[in-house]
Amino acid sequence: MPQVHVAAGSNIEPERHLAMASRELARQFPGVRCSPWYRNRAVGFEGEDFINFVAGFATERPVAEVLRVLHAIEALCGRPRAAPRWAPRSMDLDVLLYGDLVCQEPHLKLPRPDLLKRAYMLGPLADLAPDLVHPTERRTIGELWQRFDRAAHPLVKVR
């Protein structure tokens, strides 16, 4: 059964929306585990700080079905599908890894290409699954996080 890892982030009422998303993730994917939550600056635009975490779960659902569920959770949190990419958001849920799946389709790239560039994705994933081997880098997530320039991308643990 594939292990799926999803990044969650919000900068519009983040505590409320992330709590709502984590409850819905637990309802949809029993056994889900969540990393600590971290605050970080907005990336790609000027805006309020984000709070982010990573969730991990095992599922037999195909990746397209997982994406459909994640989009429904985003909508539940008030995010329209047509929301601009680099803008404030009530909820952003992104599949980082779906087992060892490597996919380069127009609307789905796995592993998520910016996973290794974004502290708010890689750091919480390292908390949750440090021994997980990245499917294309062939290094553990913990090792990749150790090599990451954390000083340039500070995270502040909030819970």
Commentary on this structure:
There is one protein chain. With 159 residues, the chain is α+β, with helices and mostly antiparallel strands. The chain is 29% helix and 23% strand. The strands form 2 sheets. Strands 1, 2, 3, 4, 5 and 8 form a 6-stranded antiparallel beta sheet that branches. A two-stranded antiparallel ribbon has the order 6-7. A hairpin with a 2-residue loop joins strand 6 and strand 7. The mean pLDDT is 95.
Characteristic key phrases:
4 helices; 159 residues; 29% helix; alpha+beta; 23% strand; Alpha-Beta Plaits; two-stranded antiparallel ribbon; six-stranded antiparallel sheet
Could you state the order of secondary-structure elements as H and E?
A: EHEEEHEEEHHE
Question: How helix-rich are the residues, as a percent range?
Answer: 25-40%
* Biggest sheet architecture: 6 strands, antiparallel
Number of strands: 8
Rounded to the nearest angstrom, the radius of gyration is 15 Å
Can you tell me the CATH architecture of the domain at 3-113?
2-Layer Sandwich
Number of helices: 4
CATH level 4 superfamily of the domain at 3-113: 7,8-Dihydro-6-hydroxymethylpterin-pyrophosphokinase HPPK
Shape: globular
